[in-house]
């Protein structure tokens, strides 16, 4: 039987091999002479140490493949993932810095550096990737490996074409380094931010120094250090609410925000309802509003006794189509907030109330009866209760 795959042009075969971890792509050299050098021309490199039995073999493989590649062949995608089983932190960081020096960063379109939660990769303080479009960082420290202190030196980041930025547990030694990192991607479209760490806190007055992302479409924020002001142009927002946002003196106008999903936790149960109303006043075209709060059975969504605001938010009058509230416990303030949404949302199509799982069945029935007896402005809205 003819080997039709081997007869394909080199660019197509390289594209196929690019979907594999580099270790497995290299193993195709045993197939025939036709495949022997293909891996040296791959535009994608994917190194993951858990596919190796020993740390030394992983480092040897990684360095060998870099040395054997033709330096003129561009690398468009680079992924480096490190498992927790290999503990020689300093050697890996040296290798990582060496890789950055050889990558020719201006060719990169995709870059992912992922370490285990018990480990931390150290990245250079100067990173410039003129054509990078996707950047994903997990458990990394923004500093040079060779310096004795993480303070008092200049950071420079430059990602002019970056569209997708994801981070989880990234450490910045100074607020200024975090500011420069956040400001280095002017056309960002997707932001996933979780648990950045800064040696000294970001002061509220410094928020004005952060540049907003004018092209931002989606954002998932689980990070106290990201100021709400930079998200004013976002279209879809998923966030875990933090006290920095609740204490924000002036919310920005979210003129393009259509979908918002907010998560509350125990620590944020004091007076969030006023903030939610203020938020609605600043979201004129909001169509889908989701609130989820995870509390213990002794906690309630509390605050000052509910008073209807003098003006109805524009989004309730003409835009809001779906409303979801998860963790509903049925206390008076919760009910008054839900009632307000029901009575002022003129085009609402679906209202879904999910009760707190610890609520007893007879109490759930009482909550449903109370909600069902409330008049809705929208004649087509369906009330769903669980």
Weakly predicted, low-confidence segments: 145-152, 297-302
Question: What is the element string, with H for helices and E for strands?
Answer: HHEHEHEEEEEEHEEEEHEHEHEHEHE
* Content-based structural category: alpha/beta
Number of helices: 10
Percentage of residues in strands: 15-25%
The counted number of beta strands is 17
Q: What is the CA-atom radius of gyration, in angstroms? A: 26 Å
Distance between the ends: 60 Å
Overall residue-averaged pLDDT value: 77
Percent helix, as a range, is 10-25%
Major β-sheet, in short?
A: 15 strands, parallel
Q: Write down the overall geometry.
A: elongated
Describe the protein in words.
The chain contains 10 helices and 17 strands. It is an alpha/beta fold and 386 residues long. The longest helix has 14 residues, at 55-68. The chain is elongated and about 75 Å long. The protein starts with 9 loop residues before the first helix and ends with a strand.
Topology:
Elements: H1 10-17, H2 22-26, E1 44-48, H3 55-68, E2 77-81, H4 89-102, E3 110-114, E4 121-123, E5 126-128, E6 134-142, E7 156-158, E8 164-172, H5 175-182, E9 190-194, E10 197-198, E11 218-222, E12 236-240, H6 243-246, E13 259-265, H7 272-281, E14 288-294, H8 314-318, E15 322-328, H9 332-344, E16 350-355, H10 361-372, E17 382-385
Parallel strand pairs: 1-2, 2-3, 3-6, 4-6, 5-7, 6-8, 8-9, 8-10, 9-11, 11-12, 12-13, 13-14, 14-15, 15-16, 16-17
């Amino acid at each position: 039987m003819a080997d039709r795959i081997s007869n394909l042009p080199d660019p197509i075969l390289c594209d196929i091999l690019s979907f594999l971890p580099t270790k497995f792509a290299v193993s195709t050299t045993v197939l025939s002479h036709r495949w022997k050098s293909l891996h040296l021309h791959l535009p994608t490199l994917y190194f993951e140490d858990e596919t190796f039995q020993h740390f030394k073999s992983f480092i040897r493989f990684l360095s060998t493949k870099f040395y054997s590649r033709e330096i003129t062949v561009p690398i468009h995608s680079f992924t480096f993932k490190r498992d927790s089983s290999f503990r020689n932190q300093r050697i890996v960081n040296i290798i990582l810095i060496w890789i950055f020096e050889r990558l020719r960063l201006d060719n990169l379109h995709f870059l992912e550096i992922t370490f285990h939660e018990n480990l931390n990769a150290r990245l250079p303080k100067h990173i410039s990737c003129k054509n990078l479009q996707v950047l994903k960082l997990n458990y990394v420290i923004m500093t040079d490996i060779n310096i004795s202190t993480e303070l008092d030196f200049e950071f420079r980041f430059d990602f002019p074409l970056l569209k997708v930025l994801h981070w989880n547990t990234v450490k910045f030694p100074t607020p200024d380094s975090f500011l420069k990192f956040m400001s280095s991607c002017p056309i960002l479209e997707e932001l996933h931010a979780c648990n950045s760490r800064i040696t000294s806190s970001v002061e509220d007055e410094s928020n004005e120094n952060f540049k907003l992302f004018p092209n931002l479409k989606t954002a998932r924020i689980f990070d106290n250090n990201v100021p709400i002001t930079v998200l004013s142009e976002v279209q879809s927002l998923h966030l875990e609410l933090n006290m920095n946002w609740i204490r924000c003196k002036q919310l920005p106008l979210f003129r393009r925000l259509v979908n918002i999903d907010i998560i509350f936790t125990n620590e944020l149960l004091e007076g969030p309802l006023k903030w939610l109303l203020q938020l609605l006043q600043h979201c004129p075209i909001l169509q889908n509003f989701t609130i989820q709060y995870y509390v213990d059975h002794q906690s309630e969504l509390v605050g000052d006794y509910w008073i209807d605001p003098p003006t109805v938010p524009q989004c309730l009058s003409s835009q809001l189509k779906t409303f979801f509230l998860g963790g509903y416990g049925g206390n008076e303030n919760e009910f008054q907030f839900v009632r307000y949404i029901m009575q002022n949302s003129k085009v609402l199509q679906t209202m879904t109330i999910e009760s707190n799982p610890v609520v007893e069945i007879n109490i759930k029935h009482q909550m449903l009866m109370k909600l069902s007896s409330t008049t809705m402005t929208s004649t087509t809205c369906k009330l769903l209760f669980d």
